[in-house]
Amino acid sequence: MSQFCPWFLALLLLTATVAPAQQLEPADLVNPLVGTDSKPSYSNGNTYPAITRPWGMNCWMPQTGKMGDGWAYQYGADRIRGFKQTHQPSPWMNDYGQFALMPGTGKIKLNEDERASWFSHKSEEARPYYYRVYLADFDVTTELAPTERAARFRFTFPQTDSAYVVLDALDKGSYVKILPAEGKIIGYTMKNNGGVPVNFKNYFVVVFDQPFTASNVYDDGKEAAGVQELAAGHAGAAVTFRTRRGEAVQARVASSFISPEQAERNLLEISTADFETVKQQGRAAWNAALGRIEITGGSEAQQRTFYSCLYRSLLFPRRFYELDAAGQPVHYSPYNGQTVPGFMYTDTGFWDTFRAQFPLLALLYPTENAQMQAGLANAYREGGWLPEWASPGYRNVMVGNNSAAVVADAYLKGLSGADANTLYEALLHGANNVGPLTAVGRAGVDFYNKLGYVPADVKLNESAARTLEYAYDDFAIYQMGKQLGRPKKETDLYARRSQNYRKLFDKQVGLMRGRNQDGSWHSPYNPFKWGGDFTEGNAWHYTWSVFHDVQGLMNLMGGPARFTATLDSVFTLPPVFDASYYGEVIHEIKEMQVADMGQYAHGNQPAQHIPYLYAYAGQPWKTQYWVREVLNRLYLPTPDGYCGDEDNGQTSAWYVFSALGFYPVCPATDQYVLGAPLFPKAVLHLENGHDVVLNAPTNSAANRYLNKLTLNGQPDGRNWLSYPELLKGATLDFEMSATPNKARGNSAADAPFSMSKPGKH
Asked: DSSP alpha helices (H): ranges in 432-508?
């Protein structure tokens, strides 16, 4: 029986007038929790949810770990101990200048275990610019929205006369002072894990919008009666409020490495802006930064992975400078302890980030990279050396002299400005001297300059890795010196030293190998042994660390056929290993094992360029195959979304470049090695106003191979793209197919730059 239904008509009208869903913007696609499901024994990223602005001086995070634990937020945790201002670049480096806020109700609890509250990811929201969570034990919702050096907090309490907020200035020396009439707490924290001068302090100011009903200071968790000010090993403060149910107590927080007065000045980044305004300003800042790349198509998971990786690429190195009363950059120097005009950036390790993260900044964020170069020049002036790992000053970790690559690549792209000669002087100084720490300057430099390699029998570990990285760094110095017009005798010296990789290639085994002072090979030899002569890897990983002369390495191996067969072996050998150097199976080895890609260890940086090397030997379709495999299998937009340490944006930048279809195998040249794009379309909005348009309309899960490429309408058979041609704006049309085109890019002329490649390009 048919009958007119008024409610049905109303439903039709309602559905017809519902507005279409709002299109997600880049910041909406970022998941700051990617990589947080990690632990010391196994890394899915070893990240934390960094709630900040692009390159912000301060990050904020929910803290699940104990005070001083580098794994300060672990996805599997179920209690939050506080909301910490953090500057931690890596759990292995740990933190500095940190302090925490924590709301509660009832009896005030200063101890981090007692004040911890249960929470659920179901009632947690994490955005790059905003964080919210419900703290079940106190019936309190905490929200935060940061600027670069300040933040707004909003604590929504139940009805109670015992709502409170604890400020924990942490141990290792701290100070708090409560100013009830101003609704304010000021103080400083000295807590750090190295890399700071003796006068290091992080000064903070917290201003609440509600009057206190009580206030107390604490010495290591015990109330200091009758005082409102305390300097101690572990100082803290608590302020109490009377609240109605659903009433929000808000706080503005800022900090400074310079002075209490500068902390107050940094608070002006918020000024009178309310919480929602700060939140939306943060969202706009992230959309502007992430929006430099506009992608179309692909799955939602791929888009979320892409923008989550781009977000991670824009966190470090963080701005360590502040703005004075005239709005000019000024910084506390982590190298000499003085306050100095000018830029300063920190919290990055060049052993990781020279490979792709800094080249990404050079291409898409050149102004920021130029300021970073100015900061490096200041680091050299203030400390006498360029850092290789800074957090915030010199740290003694990893090998190599890879500041040379970071500096030379930026100079060759026009980003050094008036500091070019100072930076080149810094490169020469670092290349020819042992530094104050093993990881500053060049350890073993006298042996290297005399023999052409760092020997394996001089009680200096990881000698082969050092040699290979020094040789590439010498190439970077050669490139910069040549462009600066330095004397030919000088540049020829670094050109010759760049060939030192040859001294470690053992033709009998076909791989790199440590060598003794007398020229004999270091024995016994096991190409599957991690460590020893190599750094967090084995001979199957480090043999390919000849970024600047892949053709030369190919010649040593006996030509393209032998070269590609050896490359094939990286992916097809079983993931066997020898961990005897470490005395345990380190997490990097486990991550290679479970990836099911043979000896390929994408979770650690020395191997990440390896898939692109087929493009040098006339088999670019294998690059296309393996890059897509890595993109598909080893990255996800989830808490376990990485395949090893994310490491300051490097592993993320690999994804960003590779998803676009090209990769900077050799920074300090003007070339990118061609892969194949992941998305049907991507547009790079360059800072100079030009666009690079990457069209691949037939791209799909099946169509991963590049059949044809046209550049600005002209057929292009090369396996590389150049920085100058992209900088002018370009349109690249990729014709993708399900089967490889083995006739494209298979000649020596199509190969990317190598020092040993005949001719010029």
From this structure: 445-451, 463-484, 488-497
